[in-house]
Design goal:
With 247 residues, the protein is α/β, with parallel strands linked by helices. It is built from nine helices and nine strands.
């Protein structure tokens, strides 16, 4: 029996954080010149194969935190490292390249390109990165098969169910083999059956591919599958045994 991808990875690589946030602060400035302090010194470290759920009340800054962790937004203060690299030290072009190879994003809305098939949507990040058509097609096909969509390769988003669209988005997020997957309310628009299937998929992928997975969620079932559940409150992350009661 062949070893799983996680087993084939060197143990030191698995134990090395691919995401490290230290003292992260994020401040927005309103139209009246006032400050809105969303993050007040967030610390977080995530290693390969680890699932982390972040919960919190509406307006707590969970999506903002995810955007900062994934280098979609720059922190006002503090430091984020992705796979050992400092996004803040990079220009826009180098930053985009780092995001493309290091982070996969899954949002509540799948954001698939409606004029393209599932296969073409998953191929897109690979083609943008300069991969050949044949390589991109083979990689996209294997990912769609892995997420259970081998029968939907040529279907466009409008021809797929909500669950199938979101699984296509997960496959697209994994196209570049990133060590980190960030998911923002990934099952928020799905019914219970499709949500549970997506939750199963996330747990399997984190283990099989040895990726780090950070999820913002209000879903108790999804949060319960995580190795750690963290509460974002007053701009800081708190690890507490009572955290699940707030989901």
């Amino acid at each position: 029996m062949s070893a799983s991808p996680a087993v084939l990875l060197d143990a030191s690589r698995i134990a090395t954080p691919m995401l490290e946030a230290t003292g992260v602060v994020k401040v927005f400035h309103g139209g009246d010149g006032g400050e809105v302090r969303v993050l007040e010194g967030v610390d977080l470290s995530v290693v390969r194969g680890e699932m982390v759920a972040i919960i919190g009340g509406s307006g707590a800054g969970k999506s903002t935190l995810l955007h900062v962790l994934g280098a979609l937004e720059r922190p006002t203060a503090g430091e984020v490292r992705l796979n050992g690299e400092l996004p803040a030290a990079l220009d826009d072009e180098a930053l985009a390249a780092l995001r493309n190879r290091s982070v996969g994003f899954v949002f509540q809305f799948h954001h698939l390109l409606k004029e393209f098939s599932a296969l073409e949507n998953v191929m897109m990040p690979l083609r943008i990165a300069g991969r050949g058509t044949a390589e991109a097609r083979d990689r996209a096909r294997s990912l769609l098969v892995r997420v259970g969509l081998e029968h939907r390769l040529t279907h466009r988003p409008a021809e797929m169910s909500g669950g199938e669209q979101q699984r296509t988005a997960v496959a697209r997020a994994l196209a570049m083999q990133p060590p980190l997957l960030l998911a923002d309310e990934p099952s928020g628009n799905l019914d219970h059956h499709n949500a549970e299937a997506l939750h199963d998929l996330f747990a399997e992928l984190a283990s099989e591919l040895a990726i780090g997975l950070v999820m913002v969620t209000h879903n108790r079932s999804l949060a319960a599958r995580a190795g750690r559940v963290l509460l974002l409150e007053s701009g800081r992350l708190r690890d507490n045994a009572d955290t699940m009661e707030t989901v």
